[in-house]
Amino acid sequence: MGYRFLYALLPVFLLFGCGYRLSVLQGLPYEQSDIKSISVGSSREDVYRILGSPNFFDPFHASCEGYFHKHSAMHQQYVLWLCFDDSGRVVSSTSS
């Protein structure tokens, strides 16, 4: 009799464990001051020194690189796109 009760409660306990969500930080965390220090004309080496290596590259635009930062607990996501010219200088930056 006691085992039936335990078997009936087992799914309830397993379902209660599904409600917890971990706070996961993805990508490279960067500050707004880091983004402001990168301007049009900055070299690729300066960008790598400030932000590190990029998270992803655009397969259709070989000269563009992307930086991604997501914090799941605060429901925030930031994407920074930097495009370089042939000499390795920033020609445009887009952040969201």
Automatic annotation (TrEMBL):
Pfam families, sorted: BamE (PF04355)
Protein name: Putative lipoprotein, SmpA / OmlA family
Range of residues in the leader sequence: none
InterPro entries listed in its UniProt record: BamE-like, BamE_dom
Alphabetical keyword list: Lipoprotein, Membrane, Signal
Assigned GO CC terms: outer membrane
Domain Outer membrane protein assembly factor BamE: 31-92
